Amino acid sequence: MSELLSIVVVESDRDRALQIVDSLRKAGEIEIYVIGTTTSLSREVQKRQPDVVLIDIENPSRDTLEELALASGPLERPVAMFVDQSDDGLSAAAIEAGVSAYVVDGLQPGRLKPILDAAIARFKMFERMRKELAATKQALEERKVIDRAKGMLMKAKGLSENEAYDILRKTAMGQNKRVADVADALVTAAGLLS
Question: CA 180: distance to chain centroid?
């Protein structure tokens, strides 16, 4: 997030939008853009690239909720959604769609800053978890390729597992590459030759 927080506020009611803007201004240095309609939400969010999207809606349907959440880019930034009423399962659907904060009973100016802070913190936590999961998946895939390459070397040259790994490691060091890259090249070459 940048030093100056930028927020897109999605609110169709002009008076309510002004109330939200006033509350946000009291919270500190914030750059605020108000969008009065949800029809061009995705385009406006892409154009503005805000740090946070704040959506205020009276009584959303499941479809409206998911559409709003997806249009506001919940995997790219925190999304705080304020609703006046919520049917069973809508909060779970909002969280599934990536909404960082889903607040029922509408937007109350005094609660705005702490809720936004919580939404930002929650978003950052999930972003870290997504990155860690992606890194873990990549490491697992690399481990599979290395194991396959070791198996190929063991079979072709009659080596032990340690000897096969040493060959991969020495080759990687000699070529200034990662062991996983050398293993991938070996597996790919073997696939082409078979």
Answer: 27
Q: Return all residues near 31 (Cβ < 8 A) that are at least 6 apart.
A: 4, 5, 6, 7
8 A C-beta contact, residue 101 and residue 124? no
Say if pTM beats, i.e. exceeds, 0.70: yes
For domain 133-193, the CATH architecture is Orthogonal Bundle (1.10)
- C-beta atoms surrounding 49 within 10 Å: 12
DSSP state of 110: G
Question: How much is the mean pLDDT over the chain?
Answer: 86
Tokens of 13: 């009611």
Neighbours of 75 (CB within 10 A): 11
